[in-house]
Each structure stands twice: as structure tokens, then as C-alpha cells.
Amino acid sequence: MGPGLPGIGAVLSTASDLLLLVLVFLVAFLFFGAIPGIGAFTVRARWRRFRARIVESSLQRFVEYGDLSAGAEGRGEDGYVGSFRAFGSLEAMQGRHRIWINTGRFTVGADLEGVQVYLLPSFSAPVSASVVERLEKSVPDEEPSMVSWDRIYSLPAGTQVFVEGALFSEDGQAVFRTRPRNPLLVVIYDGERRTILQRAIWSGRQKNEYWNQFTLAALLTGAFLLVLLAYLFLRVRGSGLPALVALSLAAFPIAALLPPGVLLYFLYRHFWKQARLLRAERDLLRLPLRYFDGAAQPPPDPRAREVSVRLPTGERYVRTREFRWLIDGALVIRGARLIERASRRGQPCWLFGALDDKAKLPSLRTPEDPMAELVLVLGDPEDLAGKCSRTARVHELVSAGLFFAAVSLNLFLLLTLWHLVIR
């Protein structure tokens, strides 16, 4: 029995260390991975909903005076008229939650109690017409601000506003209000209204979803708990692998910023930014296709070389691969910049624009609808968008690998350092 006791003690010690290591890794995973990860998925889903909502809003009709002057038989019991959109400038604020917007022809109201208001970033550089689109040079690298109207106390007259949602008639006046499951979309912007959809699609995504409203508290709590566990382990056991691992993992929030792993960290940031730009280019490439995918009209034959549909403004919008058109207006030229060398081989270009019925020769012009585009896509939009999506996914995987390599390298070096210091 005597010679066997040390062996049993060693087994018990190993099992105890294993349980303590499991505890350390669970704490690290919960506070450094799971909680920020849940926040990351929440943030990404929130911005995805914003982009989908503003694209859907471009398919709604603009509110017209005739919509309010029509008979009451077309309205609901509460005065509901339908879903509309409106551009305008702030004319006045009434009370705490109602604003009045001048559309240029008449004034509409909007009740904003509890509504989330989006503020688009201003242009950081002028945009040139009739050149290949480069929004990364003109739109600042930041997401729109999202603020509850309850936290906005004043706005200057003339502020440009876009609003979309349920419209009601109140004594002959048009008022936008939130309905159940149909909140108002309110965007405050500067610059031309023709640019807000592209700017919202381009910048409406988090720069780094891992850093969200939960991250700072989770990182601080996790680091504190790991230091506390390391202290308890050292006090009770004197030393051991669990204490060293806990001390090393406590440095996770800054581990990637330490040399030598910081070099891999900068590579991670480069690939992550490229993935975000690719996702933005993917969404822009698909943007003019939204009119041809709607359920309100039969879907066109995807093999057809030329297809036309009706815009909400009544204009006929053409998608064509036939270059027999005169162009009237500032043509936007759009491509997939990050994959364009590979994508240009044998790719037909697609032209989108409003049909000019008054022209003697076949002409495409800039649509009257400011959310529709006169655009030339350098390739098949859906094919290019798919390539952008796949390339973005590869860049995200590479960036994740680089980040974990940077963290793992530095944590291993910290573990070695703690082993030399604590013996």
C-alpha cells in the first residue's frame, strides 16, 4: 500500500489541476468569447435590418397630396392611408415628439416617440460624376449614428430628413406614425438625397462587430475573475499550471497588441477591413436588381438581354446588355474593385436606367426617383456579388486565424514568463 500512495496523490493532483484548468478556460470563454460574440451577432443583425429596411423603403411610393385628398373609403378606421416615403427639410417641431417636414410641395408630420433615428456620415471628399464609383474615398470609414429620438432635444430648421413608414390622415394632414411591427425609418443626412441609399448601404455596418456594447464590461469582468482565480490558486497551492494559465489569459484583452504578435494583429485588421469592403461592394452590386426581384410584378427572365419594370414613380426602368442607348445624365460606373481583375474576363456589362420616352432615339436617363440609379455595372451584378461574398468569407477566415495566432503566440510567451517569475 505504501509505495502506491504517491501515485494516487499524483493522480489526484493531476485531476484537480485538470478541473481547475477547465474552470479557467470556461471563465475565459464566457467573458472573452461568448458574451462579446452574442453582442457581435446582435450588432451585425441590427445593421443588416437597417440596410434591408432602407432598400425596402426605396420600393415604396412617395406621398402625394392626392393620397390625402382621396375619399375616406380607402382609409382604415384610425385614418391609416398606407406605407409611403418622403424626403424633405425640417420645418418645425411641435411638442416633444412631432416634427413637420417640408417636401417642397406640401408639409407632412411625423410622430417620433420611441423611434430610432439614423444619422448618416458626411462626405469626407467630393464625389465626381461619370467616374468609376469609389465610395471608400468619399465616405468616411464609420457607421451611421443611431440615436433614440427621446435623446434628441433640438434640430436646426432645414435639417434634411428622409422618413418611411405608415402614413395617417389627421384632419386632412399627412402624419407618419409607427404601427405595431412597422416602426418608422428616419434618416438625417446632408448632401444630395440621391446619394443617401448608396451611403447607407456602404457605411451601414459595424467596423468590428466584436467590439460592441457588451465587450468592455465582459473583458474587464473576465480579466478580474481570472486574476482573482490566479490569486486564490497561488495562495492555496503556491504555484501550478492553473495559476499560470489564469494569469496569462487575464491579459487576453491586450494580448494581441503586444510584440511580437502585434505584427499579426495589423495583418488581421487589414484582412478584416477588406472583408467589410467586399461585403459593401456586394450589396451595392445587387442594389439595382431589387426592382427586378419584387413580388409585385412577374420576375423577368434572367437570360433576357433587356428587361424593363415600373418604378414606384411610374417611370419605366430598364436593365440591358444592349449598348444602343444614348445616356442622359451622370452615369455611375460600378465594379467590384477588389476582384475586378479576375471578374472582367468575358463579363458582359449591365446598364440600368430610366427610359426616356420623349427622346427621338433610344435613351436612358437618370430616374426622377432619387433612390434609383443610372448605373453601368462592369459585369453581371449577381455573379460579381457572389464572388465578393465568397472572397469576403475567405478574408474573414484568414483575419480570424491571424487574430488567434497573434493572441496564442503572445499568451504562450506570457505563460513562459510567468513560469520563470513564479516558481
Describe the fold and architecture.
With 423 residues, this protein is α/β, with parallel strands linked by helices. Among the domains are: 61-203, Beta Barrel (OB fold (Dihydrolipoamide Acetyltransferase, E2P)), CATH 2.40.50; 283-389, no CATH class. It is 42% helix and 20% strand. Strands 10, 11, 12, 13, 14, 15 and 16 form a seven-stranded mixed beta sheet that branches. The protein has a five-stranded mixed β-barrel with strand order 2-3-4-8-7. The longest helix is centred in the first third of the chain and has 54 residues, at 4-57.
Based on secondary structure, the structural category is alpha/beta
User: What's the average pLDDT?
Assistant: 87
Number of E-state strands: 16
Fraction in beta strands? 15-25%
Order of helices and strands: HEHEEEEHEEEEHHHHHEEEEHEEEH
Q: Report, as a whole number of angstroms, the end-to-end distance.
A: 32 Å
CATH level-two architecture of the domain at 61-203: Beta Barrel
Q: Summarize the amount of helix as a percent range.
A: 40-55%
CATH topology of the domain at 61-203: OB fold (Dihydrolipoamide Acetyltransferase, E2P)
CATH class wording of the domain at 61-203: Mainly Beta
Low-confidence stretches: 1-6
CA radius of gyration: 28 Å
The shape is globular
Q: Count the helices. How many?
A: 10
- Main sheet properties: 7 strands, mixed
